[in-house]
Amino acid sequence: MAQLIKLQDYVSRYETDLYKYPSQFVRLKKQQWEKMKQHWENGALPPVTPIMKDEVPEEEGNSMKEKLFSLFKKKGAQEEEQSSSIQLNDDEIEIEMDSHQDISTEEELKVSFLDLLFDFQLRWASSTIMEKSYVDNSYHYDERLRYLLQRFPDNIFVMYNPVLRIKQAPVELETILITPTGIWCLTFLEFEEGTAYIGSGERFWLKKWGDVETKVLNPLIGLRRMESILHQIIQYEGVELPIYKGVISRNGYIDYPQAPVGIQFLDKRYHNEWFQQQRSSSSPIKSVQLKAAQAIMEYCETTSFRRLQWEEQTVGSDENQQ
């Protein structure tokens, strides 16, 4: 499962320690899958935890302060779920499935597990122990985001609609995949099934679906801008990692007779081959990959608010000093 390191301008666990969380996520995911599979094979899925709160337990005196500042290493920080729960602990990911869920095959178990991890990743990509961001509810049902996270391997980092600050101005990009061997700038061109797109160097492309012809914005405009920004960032940071550009249309066809060099058109005919290439990569997460992700993350915007318990702690400290 690919790792969502940045979502729009939300605060992310990965931006607090990008060199720690990727390997930790891989390890914890493996542990929890083995645990869940064992429960399922024994015919005893763990029961649902009725209430789980993303709050710090109340404690008194110095123990409260110690608890807060060592929260990553101790149990705490939990979130509420209805039929399943994943604790926001740094030392473990606790996944609990509905014991009444009807799962008859291992494949169905994998699907349920990935769905739980998807929700967990959205939380990691929108919160830290100290801060949270308001998440647009549409991301929970975003098919493209699920495709990127659930079908690509652990060694790929995903930035989805990240907002970067370039020359004092916010710039929202599209999809960035940071792999051990390169950076992919991706844009999606997907409407009705079987749609044909006629590419050109103009501002608009022709979109044909049945007898209906309309215009769509040339996807290469945003793609080139994204590539240009990322190229400047990694070049400035001295990162040697190639940048690739791709237009994805899983349910349509792209026809561009005199297409520019350096852009891959991953339509219904060619997408699966490219997709399998990305999935088959067994390379571990590399230092140059982490360096590239860190360099880009430095330019990312973050909009968040401090969690209530941290605000209360800050207020209490200020009052004690007065």
Description of the molecule:
This protein has 322 residues and is of the alpha/beta class. 35% of the residues lie in helices and 20% in strands. Strands 1-5-8-9-13-15 form a 6-stranded mixed sheet, sandwiched between helices. The protein has a 4-stranded mixed sheet with strand order 12-11-10-14, with no helix packed on it. A two-stranded antiparallel ribbon has the order 2-3. Strand 6 (163-166) and strand 7 form a beta hairpin. The termini are far apart.
Fill in the keyword field for this structure.
16 strands; 322 residues; alpha/beta; 4-stranded mixed beta sheet
Q: Averaged pLDDT, please?
A: 82
Determine the oligomeric state from the structure.
Answer: single chain
Query: Which of globular, elongated, flat, extended, rod-shaped describes the shape?
Result: globular
Biggest sheet overview: 6 strands, mixed
Concise overview:
With 322 residues, the chain is an alpha/beta fold. The protein has helices spanning 13-16, 21-41, 61-69, 106-124, 143-151, 219-236, 271-279, 287-297, 308-321; strands at residues 3-7, 85-86, 95-96, 131-132, 157-160, 163-166, 169-172, 175-178, 183-188, 195-198, 204-209, 212-217, 243-248, 252-255, 263-266, 305-306.
